[in-house]
Write a structure and sequence with these properties.
Chain lengths: ~140, ~400
């Protein structure tokens, strides 16, 4: 187990310079989640129009893994159809369980750097918090429409 | 590791290629082989239900179970074994007090006073009692270093204060709260004092008659005993007037179709088959701690806490929370710019186990103005060398994040 598998440069970059941090004025769905075991908090906001995620932003408190993961998630879902976003949630969840995901299945880009988290079981919950918020938000937006 | 470490088989292992340094005893302590063997020999030799059978094994199991109760009584200097109720742990003990003592007695206009540094287990039960009875929940003001000013405590406790609940030792700040003085203030207004002893009983001599607390709750697993066993101490007169917490087998005297009567103390609070192996293991843990001597344990744990605080103060960018003096067993800290989870992960890679998070004290985290902290906590098997390893690990953490964050 090497720390460098966990703290990849691209993760640290997202941690230091989080993308899409903030609020969306005309957001259509907001999800606030806590990780009660460690105190991490996240609020994910999206603007979903006609089944498409036009914009996604987050605010949160947490460790490098949880904030970097949130930053990457908001980048990845922008422009996705809601059902595509839910497929990505499923893929990410399998990735966290240590499954080798097929790069052809989805263009992972920066998210691929989070694969190393699977080797640190205590940190998987940090990485998945933002994705749980996405899942909940995506499902809520389907119910609303 | 200290020379006591040889009694703790789990410590003799490598974690991530490094000798294990276990600094998470405030979450749960390790167990000496004397405790492990006591539990093993119970299951191998005398496993049987208690207070039931006429057969020989049943008698032996009952003797072991009740013998351990007497050891616990002596350990905290309770007046009688009637005052020693076995529970699942501190949480259950506090919930029994909240449900069976406080709920039926408190009403609108009464006050419950606790401290903002309480563990959730000594906070939420009182929130629930306040909601159910209309009593008001109030908080002691804490000083900036996490100590309690008795003058201010005296002003907070009024003639309406029916119950004060406070940890003897804070699981985050390490503060030792002045229980004896608080008991005097609470009793002046005929209130009762509930003490959460989860972090004090494992580390220092706790004498309930000297402290004059009305209730004391503590857990076996933090004092080198097994998990799933703990103790509710209550003054006999108070326990006597309380209704049972759980109803069923083992706690009854006479059962009729429409009503029943209860066994005498302490068994009226021990419905169902109890954690017999846990109680016997707890008795062995008491024997172990007494063989070392609680004065020695106390001095050892305070010395390590003072040593850690002193070393940490020398590190730039490291904040230590809680009082600088009169603390025991643990040190809570943060490294500037590095989240405590990340600190704990780097330390784990070095074989060093610390806790990171809110330590079941979310209101206290807000009081400190942080979302989480890291905590190193000690027990008899630790030594200054373990803290030196921790300090090296923290140095490495700073360097590592200095590099990766550029």
């Amino acid at each position: 187990m090497s720390l460098d598998d966990l703290y990849r440069r691209v993760i640290m970059d997202h941690y230091q310079k989080p993308r899409n941090r903030g609020r969306i004025e005309d957001g259509t769905v907001t999800v606030d989640l806590n990780n009660p075991t460690c105190g991490d908090k996240i609020s994910v906001q999206m603007r979903v129009e006609e089944g498409k995620i036009e914009e996604a932003k987050f605010l949160g408190e947490g460790c490098s893994i949880s904030l970097a993961s949130a930053s990457m998630m908001t980048e990845a879902v922008k422009g996705l159809e809601v059902d595509e976003a839910l497929r990505l949630v499923d893929l990410f969840s399998r990735m966290m369980q240590g499954e080798d995901v097929d790069p052809d299945e989805f263009p992972l880009e920066d998210i691929e750097a989070l694969q190393g988290v699977a080797k640190f079981p205590a940190r998987i919950k940090c990485a998945t918090l933002a994705w749980k918020a996405l899942e909940k938000g995506a499902k809520e937006s389907v119910q609303k429409s | 590791m200290s020379h006591y470490a040889k009694d703790f088989p789990i410590l003799n292992q490598e974690v991530n290629g490094n000798p294990l340094v276990y600094l998470d005893s405030a979450a749960t302590s390790q167990k000496p082989f004397q405790v492990i063997e006591a539990v093993e020999s119970y299951y191998k030799e005398i496993n049987s239900n208690v207070h039931r059978g006429v057969h020989t094994l049943g008698t032996k199991a009952t003797d072991g179970y009740e013998g351990a109760r007497e050891k616990v009584r002596r350990f905290i200097n309770a007046a009688s074994v009637k005052e020693i109720v076995y529970t699942r742990g501190t949480t259950t003990a506090l919930n029994i007090i909240a449900s069976s003592y406080a709920r039926p007695r408190l009403k609108e206009g009464d006050e419950i006073v606790i401290s903002p540094s309480e563990h959730h287990s000594n906070l939420i039960p009182w929130q629930q009692v306040a909601r159910a009875t209309g009593a008001q929940l109030k908080y002691f003001p804490l000083e900036p270093d996490g100590t309690l000013d008795l003058k201010k405590a005296e002003e907070t406790i009024t003639e309406r204060t029916k119950l004060v609940a406070i940890a003897h030792v804070s699981n985050v700040l390490g503060t030792i709260f002045p229980i004896k003085e608080l008991a005097r203030l609470v009793h002046r207004h005929q209130g009762v004092l509930v003490v959460d002893g989860a972090q004090s009983v494992p580390h220092m001599k706790v004498d309930v008659r000297d402290l004059d607390c009305d209730f004391l709750a503590f857990s076996g697993h933090k004092m080198m005993g097994p998990t799933g066993i703990g103790v509710l101490y209550g003054k006999e007169s108070l326990l006597e007037e309380m209704e049972p917490f759980e109803f069923g087998g083992e706690m009854i005297d006479h059962v009729d179709l429409y009503e029943s009567t209860w066994k005498e103390l302490p068994w009226k609070f021990e419905g169902g088959t109890p954690n017999i192996a846990g109680a016997i293991g707890l008795g062995a843990a008491v024997d172990y701690l007494e063989s070392v001597g609680m004065d020695e344990v106390d001095a050892h744990d305070r010395r390590l806490a003072a040593y850690a605080v002193e070393k940490m103060k020398e590190v730039e960018g490291l904040t230590v929370y809680g009082p600088t003096t009169d603390r025991t067993g643990l040190v809570t800290f943060n490294i500037e710019g590095v989240h405590p989870h990340d600190v704990a992960t780097v330390l784990d890679a070095e074989g060093i186990a610390v806790r990171a998070g809110h330590h079941c004290c979310q209101p206290l985290m807000r009081w400190l103005g942080v979302s989480a902290t890291a905590r190193a906590s000690f027990h008899l098997y630790n030594s200054e060398a373990d803290i030196d390893r921790l300090m090296k690990g923290l140095q490495k953490t700073k360097e590592y994040f200095g590099n990766v964050l550029g």
